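Hello K.,

You asked for the raw outputs rather than the summary table, so here they are, unedited. I folded two proteins back to back in the same session to keep the settings identical. This is the first:
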Amino acid sequence: MGNVIATAAVSLDGFVADTEDAVGPLFDWYNNGPVEVYGSDPGRPFHLSRASADYINATWPNVRSCVIGRRLFDITNGWNGVPAVGEHVFVVTHEPPTDWPFPDAPFTFVNGIEEAITQAREYAGDHDISVTGGNLTGQALAAGLVDEIAYNLVPALLGTGRKFFGDYVGPQILLDNPRVVEGDRVTHLHYRVIR
């Protein structure tokens, strides 16, 4: 069975976006280097530093399914029906869209984080599942569903905004020492959750 990995680009003060859902400098590292890297969309290249490219190329290919919230789905329009990473996206929502123009895209709308992770695990098999930061991450942590945290730390302070762990309320969680990769304008901190 693969791992459930909570992941996002995060400011030094813990935010994944500002109050208007803009990421500002948090995504600059995706396009500040000479190495071209792709997720699932061959039309959406990233240009990374060698260190970030090596880190991404060691992690993204093993992700088969992703779990995201309805907010991210709406902001990105579901990446126009093409998963950013992996083959299938499970969207946690109480109200699936009725007019999305990509009805045949590999997206499944699920009510609740536990059901979404269950379906994502079944789909992924021995591959990993990515859970995108925000309230969804806090819910997955509180439910004990997260195996690893991929914290892409950007040297910026947003001051306020959407927190990586949302409004997490749950048990104290300890993590193993991180694997640390220093990129250009990002430090990749990859932790395992201690069970």
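The second followed immediately with the same parameters:
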Amino acid sequence: MPANVKTRVLFHSRRLNIYLVRYPEGHKVGPHLDMISEGRLYKLNCVLVKPKAGGEFICDKNIFNLFGRVYLFRPDLHQHRVSKIERGNRWLLSFALISGP
């Protein structure tokens, strides 16, 4: 059984959350939407360390994708997932911004 995902909350407020996440070998994230009660959710994900194999981020629609390392997208509107990490770990710095009412 693969190791658990390790998430460290670096900052938390009503509108902005910042996380450092380690996804271990063998882990994958199935297709999903991130639900929020109101407003618009934006995520800026920065892949700090790519796994040696697998662990690709796949999203129905990105606002931008910079070299497969930096993604800005609307996780509340567009389905997204991460393929199985075949070898190595995936380290992610994630900024979640809620805008609106």
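The longest strand covers residues 40-49.

Happy to rerun anything if the numbers look odd on your end.

Regards,
P.
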